[in-house]
Amino acid sequence: MQIEALSQFLDQLFDVQQFGEDQGGVYRTSKRPIQRLGLALEPWPQLAAWASAEHLDALFLHRPWKLQLQQDIGVVAYHLAFDEYLTLGFNSRLATVLGISGLEVLGYKSGRPIGMLGKVFTPSFPHYASLVSEVFGDLDQATANATTEVSQVAVVGAMSDTLVREAAARGAEVYVTGQLRQPAAQAVRETGIGVLVVGHRRSEEWGLRALAGVLRERWAGLEVVLPVRQ
Fold it and tell me: Is the pTM of this model over 0.90?
């Protein structure tokens, strides 16, 4: 596989045409055939050493802007498309592992959905908080809902007074998001909705793991490598 084929697949996967000037694609070209692909959120000081140790032929980066790399390695980069497709938002892959069904759109930004609402089958808020923590590796914060029932959940890549009130009005007892936003605090108190804050970086790391699975499904012979720590 060449870097152009990888980019074409990701362009289609992320439906990049809807992202205007932030479509992503080939960030650094190379004619090197890709057998081992590294996935990372951004460059870090040991990136070159890691790429050499793992014998990488190419890289996927979410934030490539500080990249300094001397090796002949191709790079593809997707910022906004990755965030909206594979982190917190209208993300069917994430909905599956979070046990959410009957998905509906919650909120739009520039005409694109930024959240999802759906049904869950769980006995209590603590039980669902534990499930979400298992999926992401931990939680930054968990604020229980006003009742013990959890039958609908909202997962949104933003948190505003309007979005919280809409989620509650449409039956959500729990609001899952990346970062706690103080302008929404009053809406949380008044609606009694529970809040699970997973952390922005944890949501991105989940997205990388999900992308690794998609790429392995697409190319049986492709070895996908994730860094242990950045």
Answer: yes
